[in-house]
Structure formats: C-alpha cells, structure tokens
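Q: What residues go here?
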C-alpha cells in the first residue's frame, strides 16, 4: 500500500502544490529505516517501486520519466540475457556492458572507500546498488502489470 512506502513523497508533493514555502534546513535530520538483511532490503525497495507507480495514479507529476530507469534496466537486461542465447551480436554487447558495469563497480568502491574511509563497507556498495536497482525496477514492473490487468 502507498501509505506505507510512498507517504513521504505524496505528503511533500501536496505541500509543494499548495504553494507553501519550502526551505532546506541543514541541521534537520531525517531517519529512514533500512532493513538489515539483503532479502529484507530488497523487499522494502520492491515495495517502494510499487509505490512509485501508485503515486503516479494519484498525480502524474509524481511519476517522471527518470523513475522508469530501473524498470527499463531490468527489462533490457533480462531481454538481452535471453537474446544472447541466440545472437552472437547481443552476446558481444552483453560482454561490453558487463565490462562497463565492472568499471562502474570499481569506481563505486574507490569513491565509497574515500568517502567512508572503510574499504570493507565500500566493497558492499555494488551489491547494494544492484539490489536497489533490480528490486525497485521489479516493483515498478509488478505494479504496472497489476494495474494493467485491473483495467
């Protein structure tokens, strides 16, 4: 349900649309609970992806084209995985993309370790990145399919 995973976005959107003055407070802290296991984190992010589609039903302004990037990634990746079994060209393209992703992972680890001063924690950044990207995208796809089937 949106009231558990998209309420902060929906509430902020209503405040801004009302014309209220919104300012950045550097000393304000917001605590956002994350789950402590990879499976629980994936489940939470999956629900956030579903909530984004539900937010778009309330007001199209809350569902921008950029929000679809994880879903497009998931569809393209799994589509290319399937096509790579029958096409050498797609297989070669997948190899290049995987190599590019490995370079991105190295960058994330180096940048993360520079920022946190903790190489062990930084090694987890690519894992968390993949979980977040795939879970959010799958949540959006699942909710879009569910919405389409309801019509």
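A:
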């Amino acid at each position: 349900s949106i009231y558990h995973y998209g309420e902060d976005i929906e509430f902020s959107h209503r405040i801004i649309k009302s014309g209220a003055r919104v300012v950045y407070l550097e000393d304000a802290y917001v605590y956002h609970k994350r789950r402590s296991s990879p499976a629980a984190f994936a489940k939470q992010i999956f629900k956030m992806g579903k909530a984004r589609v539900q937010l778009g039903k309330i007001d199209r302004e809350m569902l921008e084209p950029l929000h679809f990037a994880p879903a497009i990634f998931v569809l393209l990746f799994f589509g290319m995985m399937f096509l790579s079994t029958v096409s050498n060209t797609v297989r070669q393209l997948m190899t290049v993309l995987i190599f590019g992703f490995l370079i991105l992972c190295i960058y994330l680890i180096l940048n993360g370790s520079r920022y946190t001063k903790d190489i062990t924690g930084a090694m987890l950044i690519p894992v968390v990145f993949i979980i977040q990207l795939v879970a959010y995208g799958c949540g959006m796809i699942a909710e879009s399919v569910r919405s389409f089937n309801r019509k």
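A: Context that may help when evaluating the design: The mean pLDDT is 90. The radius of gyration is 18 Å.
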